[in-house]
């Protein structure tokens, strides 16, 4: 091929690349435009507003009896689940990483598959029935336990990879000095795998924060419902969405996960930390 | 043992037990209301027979396969890989911006996202209609499957992108350079160097996004399964029959069929994975 | 302080692999003792069994006059320094050194005082606020030692303490470790695969192979009179010549010549003759009672050279010659054993006969 032809081909490839990236950007950014503009519009609707600015919609949000409280509920659920998931998955992953049992990996895989299958809609009937018959509907602790149970296999799976990277000599060294298993876990292992624990915590928060189905079927008292569920109550009598509420609430409700993302991105870089391997 | 106990207890209670319960409910004629609510009737495999002969179930299964195939196996996988590959050599600000919007689509709460898409696709004032100059086009009604496919690609591509950028980062530079010295073009390099390296990642990724998409409930929030069951994937079908329709036993039977399909998918991928390591 | 006694110690892993096989050993109080052997010989398993990190399948371990076979590692009052030092990356040097005292629930101020004192003794005073990742290999090793010293144990256990240092540092660390051990006077067992290290540092050495001890002795004994041909082959920086021979009329017949037999053995006994290259004298002229060959390779060792004499069809003979006296390759040469330095082993990898 002649030199100009090569150059022309290169240029074409570049242009193609930029067009591709541009299209992808538009595709992904388009739905987000509404989120950042409508909360400040004078007459919010599905239509992306013409430039205008008001904080009036936030006033409406503040006055709604359930809106702000539901964010609090979401925080409680997400925080509680994150703590339990980190503690239980951490201890379990540590033990599994250290104990050599036949078939351990197979069991772990099985539970992981089960979780990615069962946590969704497939299990909602039995879970609903179970908590209904135990009279635990509207019980937030029960919901946190259900959520934790669903997240544990993946969390254990990811954390076990982290635990596997902790040299055994660390623990053996501590053992020779007389440290108990709990002391080893607290003094040595937990601090060393802290990035992994943080990853799991953030991941759990994001998962719970967006979860609609489980709180929807397990919490019926609007005063206890989290943001994901409450958002569906922002309709007027005619079934028309209350855009002032919905748009501002969407924004408020999105801020924590975006913050989470920023923190993770800054501290660890938003990457997989060996959690998922081929 | 003490370390594993809490995690195992939660997994047993909220994953294994519901799964078993699903098995049990599936052989009952058990409804949320009416005479079968008080005294469920044993119908053996009746529910399964009903499901497997129900044209609505067949339709739903077919839709799910199309939904998973188009949006996850093809859409997220390919787009995610392309983005990871393209962004690898892109300017850092381009990478930053694309990363941010793609990840935002992934981490925003589900309920918010659904509203964003309703605003995007709304018949009257939707952004898409305004942009394309097609006022009044009812995307969710006219193209329900395409809508949920596009939605799921938008929602989930981030995961594949992250995983593939990690995987591509692990392909040794020296091998890429070796391929270049021998004059291999991009496609050849992809086939001979990159793909063999990341085959495990491709399989893991495809497995995970397949399972997630298969059990994804979000289509319900976008189209409600309609119109005329044209976007009624299996999770939506389960929800509509068991929770809305109150046929708990029947819903459980379908759940179990879903579990089995999931298991089959998982085993299929694991086989492929094992063949790789053999 | 205390000696260490092992009696009939066996360690068999669940898979059926026997790492340590019915082993008896006594380490005296205050002794600097080396467990030496090739990788996989069971030396590290033995050390870990003394520490309690592995449970002996059979036999007893005692430290001082206490039977510790069934005790947990923390109750045995030993301190171990690991091959990778096992410094905790999230703790400062000070906290690392003080860690054994933290486990013993000694108040923070007291344990920090003690850690500073020990650290200063090991020349770590300026590094107390750093983290292990910010230290050089030698500094990390000293921190690991300080952490062991602070625990004030009855015995030290070192697993390949020098293997993570580069070659030059290893020499000074050898001197340093030996001095530290002598000053503290604490019974110390260390594991190494490097025979030079064992010879240089230890008061006594146990040479191990395949889970058994092949010889226990002072460095001089182990070097000068290896108890088996395995030990003979393993010890020494230039490998010992091990040559097949037959006894005929009070003389040894080898492929490269004949030598007087140092022991009274019946005719036709097949033996393996062991002579260190250092104990052979090179001659360019034919001499009596010597091994003859053609000069092949000459390797420079520094102040001396290793000359390989090729013999027709049989194993070559290595000879160490003085600097400047190296022969030309291709010439004929003779190697004369120094008096009393010819060792005889039972043929086929056997024990020392004479």
TrEMBL record, chain A:
Residues 71-264 form the ABC transmembrane type-1 domain. It comes from the Bacteria. It is a multi-pass membrane protein. PROSITE patterns: ABC_TM1. GO terms for biological process: transmembrane transport. The chain crosses the membrane at residues 15-36, 75-96, 108-129, 141-159, 196-218, 243-264. GO terms for cellular component: plasma membrane. The keyword Transmembrane applies. Its main location: membrane. It is found in: Cell membrane. SUPFAM superfamilies: MetI-like. Pfam families: BPD_transp_1. Keywords: Cell membrane, Membrane, Transmembrane, Transmembrane helix, Transport. Belongs to the binding-protein-dependent transport system permease family. This is ABC transmembrane type-1 domain-containing protein. It comes from Actinocatenispora rupis.
Automatic annotation (TrEMBL), chain B:
CDD domains: TM_PBP2. SUPFAM superfamilies: MetI-like (SSF161098). It is a multi-pass membrane protein. Coiled coil: none annotated. GO terms for cellular component: plasma membrane. It is found in: Cell membrane. Keywords: Cell membrane, Membrane, Transmembrane, Transmembrane helix, Transport. This is Amino acid ABC transporter permease. Residues 62-269 form the ABC transmembrane type-1 domain. The keyword Transmembrane applies. Its main location: membrane. InterPro entries: MetI-like, MetI-like_sf. It comes from the Bacteria. One of its GO terms (biological process) is transmembrane transport. The chain crosses the membrane at residues 61-85, 97-120, 153-172, 193-214, 247-270.
UniProtKB/TrEMBL annotation, chain C:
Pfam families: ABC_tran, TOBE_2. InterPro entries: AAA+_ATPase, ABC_transporter-like_ATP-bd, ABC_transporter-like_CS, ABC_transpr_MalK/UgpC-like, Mo/tungstate-bd_C_term_dom, NA-bd_OB-fold, P-loop_NTPase, Transp-assoc_OB_typ2. One of its GO terms (molecular function) is ATP binding. It comes from the Bacteria. PROSITE patterns: ABC_TRANSPORTER_1 (PS00211), ABC_TRANSPORTER_2 (PS50893). GO terms for cellular component: ATP-binding cassette (ABC) transporter complex, substrate-binding subunit-containing. Residues 4-235 form the ABC transporter domain. This is Sugar ABC transporter ATP-binding protein. It comes from Actinocatenispora rupis.
